[in-house]
Design a protein that fits this description.
Elements lengths: L1 H9 L5 E5 L5 H9 L4 E4 L2 H10 L7 E4 L8 H7 L2 E5 L2 H14 L4 E6 L12 H12 L5 E7 L7 H21 L6 E4 L5 H6 L4 E4 L1 H4 L10
Parallel strand pairs: 1-2, 1-8, 2-3, 3-4, 4-5, 5-6, 6-7
Helix pairs in contact: 4-5
The structure holds pyridoxal-5'-phosphate.
Pyridoxal-5'-phosphate (PLP) binds next to strand 8 and helix 9.
Length: 221
């Protein structure tokens, strides 16, 4: 777990390390927990529920959902995760909001944005998000507290840094111009987290750099 300690100490104390553990066995997750990690992120509901059951004894873990959320999984995600980083449509926001009110749950949620067009990613474009801010404000059973972004693959560092900077500016502008308070920025993965931290990330989502390569076919989300 040397890698985890090295990454942890390299992060400013204001930046939360969220360990991405899709495909990572619970033995390694326990080791990460021993090294001080308390925030774990999964992208597949079935896999996450099985691991949550196995790690039930580690009571102070906070679970983050980072996968593409489908409405048929929304109930399970609401029941089992404190954070959702990947909310990507108004329709789903309204559905989660209604479910949340029924269940008495109010998850912390980041809205996923695409600063640059990207056919491989879900999320709001800045224009779409501005158009729907008013409707999102009505979703009071969701703690809409930040933005999440993933830059398109293969960009040079300067462009990645620009995507992160624009995301920060968008969060600030929406917080100014609406009743939402988007103070969290979930940005940065193993390959680009230093750029994200420099641009103001409050949470980095790190998998490979902590746990090694995932099996082939498990790239991206
Ligand atoms: C897999 C995944 C990560 C972690 O990626 P690494 O490059 O392994 O650090 C972060 N965010 C999301 C949404 C993911 O699906």
């Amino acid at each position: 777990m040397d890698r985890i300690l090295a990454v942890q100490t390299s992060l400013p104390t204001t930046v939360r390390l969220v360990a991405v553990t899709k495909t990572v066995p619970t033995t390694l997750m326990r080791a990460a927990y021993q090294a001080g990690v308390r925030h774990f992120a999964e992208s597949r509901v079935q896999e996450a529920l099985a691991k949550q059951a196995e790690l039930r004894d580690l009571r102070d873990i906070t679970w983050h959902f980072i996968g593409h959320l489908q409405s048929n999984k929304a109930l399970r995600v609401l029941e089992s995760f404190s954070w959702i980083h990947s909310l990507d449509t108004l329709k789903l926001a309204e559905y989660l909001n209604a479910l949340g009110s029924k269940l008495g749950k109010r998850p912390q949620v980041c809205l996923q944005v695409k600063i640059l067009p990207d056919d491989h990613k879900f999320g709001w474009s800045p224009d779409q998000l501005w158009r729907e801010v008013g409707a999102l404000e009505q979703c009071t059973n969701l703690d809409l507290c930040g933005l999440m972004t993933i830059p398109p693959q293969g960009l040079p560092d300067a462009d990645i840094a620009a995507v992160f900077a624009v995301t920060r500016e968008l969060a600030a502008a929406i917080s100014q111009g609406s009743r939402l308070s988007l103070h969290d920025l979930s940005m940065g993965m193993s390959g680009d987290y230093q750029l994200a931290v420099a641009a103001g990330a409050t949470m980095v989502r790190l998998g490979t750099i902590l746990f090694g390569d995932r099996p082939v076919g498990e790239l991206g989300s």
